[in-house]
Structure formats: C-alpha cells, structure tokens
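Box 4.2: Ligand-aware structure prediction
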Amino acid sequence: MRILLTGVTGQLGHTLQPILSQHHEVIAPTRAQLDLSDAAAIAAFVADCKPDLIINPAAYTAVDKAETEVELAQAINAIAPGVFAEQAKKLGIGLIHYSTDYVYDGSLRDDNGKLPSYTEDAPTNPVNVYGKTKLAGEQAIIASGCKYLIFRTSWVYSTFGKNFLLTMLRLANERDELRVVNDQWGAPTSANAIADISAAIVAQLNSAEDAATWWTSHQGTYHLTTKGRTSWCGFTQEIMRQASAAGRLQKAAPTVTGIPATEYPTPAQRPVNSCLDTSLLATTFHVHIPEWEAALAHVLGKIA
Ligand SMILES: NC(=O)c1ccc[n+]([C@@H]2O[C@H](COP(=O)([O-])OP(=O)(O)OC[C@H]3O[C@@H](n4cnc5c(N)ncnc54)[C@H](OP(=O)(O)O)[C@@H]3O)[C@@H](O)[C@H]2O)c1
C-alpha cells in the first residue's frame, strides 16, 4: 500500500515509519513539508499524494501549553483530522488516527470506590483543552463518514523525544530523591508497543480479500495501551528498578517518594483515572498486548 504518515518527527510517527516501510511505500512529510495548521495544504497534499491509507499520529501534545494556545491545538488536533477524514472519504480510503485517555474526566469509580478501566462506550468529558481538542478530532472523523480506526492511547514514551521515561532517567543521575505523583493511574505505553500493534492491524487490512468488507467489520474506536496499570510514582519506581538492575544509572538510584497531584500543580488539570480497557482491541484484532513492565524493559534495552 501507499501510506501517508504524519508526525514522523514525533515519538509514534518516528517509530512507525521504519516498521511500515518494510512492507509499504510510506510518504511521511515533516512539518516543513506539510503544516497541519493549514487545512487547505492538507487537502492539496492528500489529493497530490493519492494514498491507499492515511495514518495520523501527529498532534499538538503539549498538554499544559494547550491551555493558552487553544487555537493552535484546535487546528492540529480537531480541524486537521477532520480534513484528513474528508479527503479519505473522497478517495474511498481509510484513516487510522490516534487519540487519548484525556477524552475522559477520570472520575470513574465502582461501588467500592475502586477505579475500573474505561471501555470505549463510557461517556467522554475532557477536563483540559488538549483533551477537548482531541475529542473534537475524533468527532470530526466520525462525522465525515470515512472508513476509520481511532486508537486512544495513554502515557506515551519512547527512546527519544520529550517523555516521562527520559526525564526520569536524566533526573536519576542528578538527584538523590524524586518526588512523583502517586494518585493518578494509567498504563505507561511505549511508542514501540503502539507501532507494533498498529502495523499488525495494517497487515490484516492489507491481506484482507476485500478491503471494504474489512473496514465495515473493523471500523471504530478502540483503546490501545499496554496491559496493567500503575501511578506515575509506580512507573518511576519500576524505571529505577529496571535501569539500576541493567547498570544504566551513573550513580545509586534515587529514593522515589509518592506525592499527591495537589503538591505538583500544573496549568492543565489531569484525570485521576486514566485506565483504559483494551479487551475490545484484543478480541477484534487478536493482537499481542504487552504488560507495561515488559514494554518498558523493551524500550530500556534500546536506549544506549
Ligand atoms: N505523548 C503522550 O503521552 C500521549 C498520550 C496519549 C495520547 N497521545 C496521542 O498519541 C499520538 C502520538 O503522540 P506522540 O507522543 O508521538 O506525539 P509527539 O512525540 O509530540 O509528536 C507529535 C508530532 O506531531 C507533529 N506536529 C505537531 N504540530 C504539527 C504541525 N503544525 N504540522 C505538522 N506536524 C505537526 C510534530 O512535529 P514537530 O516535530 O515538527 O513538532 C511531531 O512529529 C498523538 O495523537 C497524541 O495525541 C499521546
């Protein structure tokens, strides 16, 4: 297939490109080649590229900055996906798009006050600008009537870029104590895990006898994260445990102390419960979903 892939300088796009390129022709414009805040440029690029599939991991991901850069976040997270979707509809091709746990408000509790995982049909109610714009992007795609897969993921990290794992590894070499939020819950998800699962699904589409029938039976919104859950503090403790065991720290691992989110105020509010149920993804596509600790070990093994 000829695949138009966005966000190639980002964590997920960068990880997806070499995997998809093994079996497909991948057209992956950088921001300089295609600015996603320019809707007309997107339409012209797609018309010129004539892809068989569009994959859109690009996004405005600066969650705190989005609180003040509302218009730009809206252009990239809400309007651009809608334009890709309209073009996909026009060409009769599919669109794979990525969204976020932040479409939920994180208040889901069971009768015992425990935190269940969100299923795809749970009511959305974003509590920050980033989440609102990402939800608007989902809605624009669905309203377009194109063939689509929307994968909501969470707490993304990779071997490069600006992410929690690399920040904690850097701080581990600078500090003796790390104070990290322990009352927000979710699944740290590596870009590698998302890319491997996405590529497996693209392979299923590519080998389907009839692509139109495949889309009819698979189209929809799915939760795509690793298995299991932890807090940011638990994630940090596991990073330190694995990095230390592998001899990757330049000094003794720092003490990791849990703190409530109220002690680490940020411009954007974040959900307490970010846990997403991945059963629908697993039963629909029969893909391997790794445990979050195993996905972390895999990424740590790739960091020099
Ligand atoms: N990161 C997370 O923790 C997280 C959590 C949940 C869901 N997600 C979702 O997962 C997906 C992948 O995220 P990620 O972590 O890979 O994001 P990322 O590393 O921040 O990469 C974002 C990509 O989008 C590109 N981009 C942003 N504005 C653009 C513009 N105006 N024109 C063209 N390209 C533009 C960036 O290009 P530049 O390099 O030029 O800036 C970059 O390539 C996104 O849909 C995100 O919303 C992420």
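In the box above, the bound molecule is NAP. The chain has ten helices and twelve strands.
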